[in-house]
Amino acid sequence: MSGTPASVMLDGMESSVIDRSSPHASSAAPRQHPGHVLPMPAAVLVTLAGAFLVGMLTSFGQAGPQFVSTMSNSGGSWFVAAMLLLLIVRPRMRWALPLGVVVLELMHVGYTVASNLRGHPDFLAITNFWVIMALPAGLLAGAVVTWTLRGETRLRSLALGLAGATLVGEGGRGLLQVAETTGSAFWVTEIIVGVLVVAAAVAVGRTPVARVVGLAAGVVGAAAVLTAYSILGG
Question: Quick one: what percent of the chain has pLDDT higher than 70?
Answer without folding.
Answer: 83
